[in-house]
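Extended Data, panel c. Modelled sequence:
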Amino acid sequence: MAEGKPEEPAGSLTLTTRRRIRADAARLFEMWTQPAHLRNWWGPEGVTCSEAHVDLRVGGRYRIANRFADGKVLWISGEFESVEPPRQLVYSWRLESGPPVRERVTVRFEAQDGGTEVVVIHERIADEALRRQHAGGWEGCLAGLEKYATAV
């Protein structure tokens, strides 16, 4: 909750994005949760991760800086609700510059022959415009993760 203001009600829309990556689940889980890795792949095209902080435990917090080409920085933060290496993460999601709404993200790492399907489920989205924005962001993040995972 922000500075005495009540949290706005959660939205009702959900987005599911998935990508099969030729890397094992444990490696991808580490790349998703370790700041040194996050800084190398996080963000849609045109956005870089200039800073990342992760306290990987239930109740722990994370904070990720998204730097845009024009120099603007947008911070995303939240709290881990579930940490199950290397299978799943569940965490709250909020743009620090936006209203105090807490969306929820679940990331599943599902082992498959020769790789892992990474499934991102983003819930509690307020409206369709924001849902489309998140879809582009997650598609870009998963493309960046795949490129990074297959290059290292």
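The mean pLDDT is 92. This feature is highlighted in the accompanying rendering.
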